[in-house]
Amino acid sequence: MGKKTIISCAVTGAGNTFQKSPHVPITPKEIAEASIEAAKAGAAVAHIHVRDPKTGEYSFDPALFQEVVERVREKETDVILNITAGGGGDFVPDRANPETGGEGTFIQTPEERHLPVGKLLPEICTLDCGSLNFGDQLYMAPVEWLREQAALIKNSGVKAEMECFDTGHLRFANQLVQEGLIDGDPLYQFCLGIPWGAEADAETMLHMIHHLPDRANWSAFGIGRHQIPTAVQAALLGGNVRVGLEDNLYLEKGVLATNAQLVDKTTNILQALDIEPMTPEEARNSLGLTKQLPQRG
């Protein structure tokens, strides 16, 4: 018997990648279709952001999340939904407006970040476990806000995927577990290679693995050219993997990819190493997920 791993596909993200590739889905219909195509290629989980259908820019409109979720759920193809709950944390430094930030600053409270999750009840949602110099801007996630958000996720019955962009984030995620704010076996995502967070290399991944608590489930992704190597390294070390157009646009140098192609490429490489992708049902059993009925109205 070979190993098994969970493949997640982050189908669209929040960056300006739609300006660089025609394959990045924008509308709720396109995002839902990309999620289903990724599932057919071997992904057990689809990680969902939404975009303004008119501009392609990122959005946190609960109605857009609802349309994506409803479109996926009405299809026969099974896939676990993982909705982002990390929106509304962007602070753009501006010397003229140091207290409020410049154009592009958008901060949401824990309650606002949780709103689509609490209404739609996906099986998983993300919880970004700390602030970070995210490229040229600051992603803001104060610790007391994160405690509030973790409690909201726990009370909703959704599994929190604790995203760790640096080693300090992992320390705080472990603190949430110790404080009883995370139910069941904790789920971690190592987010590697993003300026200016943790490096996308084996040493960093091993360091983070060695600081996980007992019974932890974990996954890892790398951005850009690090995507496939990070996925393979994670699977070989016993973790789960994430690929998709949120993190990388290319199938190979100079060749733009679709989400399904990235999942298919990853699946083929892992199978050659005697590592099989889990089905959605196997992933539910592995992670201890619970299907719930969304709120009406």
UniProtKB/TrEMBL annotation:
Keyword Translocase carried by entry: no
Keyword line: Metal-binding, Transferase, Zinc
Cofactor dependency: Zn(2+)
GO molecular function (one): 3-keto-5-aminohexanoate cleavage activity
Matching Pfam families: BKACE
InterPro entries: Aldolase_TIM, BKACE
Name assigned to this protein: Uncharacterized protein (DUF849 family)
